[in-house]
Design goal:
Length: about 140
């Protein structure tokens, strides 16, 4: 099952954290991004774009995440700088542990007039790990 949607661009990695005293915490910009993602995904659930069936499968199976970042310029930002905050925001908003993400695809694109993040989220029911390796569980 696949769900597609658009999000605003996440803040750059250099803008995601600030130092408060001796601690690193999410910046206001990063907190605002996480709230935007939560609101957007709640709306998509209300509209049944993200169905209960999709969520059930995502909770039981695994997740593939396809992210197309549309930046204003080709060289100002790293492609992977927005990955972790986006993955965390999406998974937290949907109540899914992000350790269920087993496949990630990132693409850098350019759209100076409409920077954004295009997301394709796929719930995988048939993902399998290699059978010939012993998995150690702690």
């Amino acid at each position: 099952m696949v769900v597609q949607f658009s999000l605003p661009l996440p803040p750059s990695i250099n803008s995601q954290y600030v130092t408060v005293g001796n601690r690193r915490v999410l910046s206001r910009e990063a907190q605002a991004f996480k709230r935007q993602v939560k609101r957007q995904l709640a709306l998509l659930q209300q509209r049944d774009t993200i169905s209960e069936q999709f969520l059930a499968l995502a909770h039981q199976g695994y997740i593939a995440l396809f992210l197309d970042f549309y930046f204003e310029t080709p060289l100002r930002r790293d492609l992977d700088g927005g990955l972790k905050i986006t993955q965390d925001s999406i998974c937290t908003s949907l109540g899914i542990n992000d350790n269920r993400v087993v496949d990630i695809h990132l693409v850098k694109r350019i759209d100076p007039l409409h920077p954004r993040l295009e997301v394709e989220l796929e719930a995988l029911s048939d993902w399998q790990f290699e059978h010939d390796r012993q998995v150690l569980i702690k």
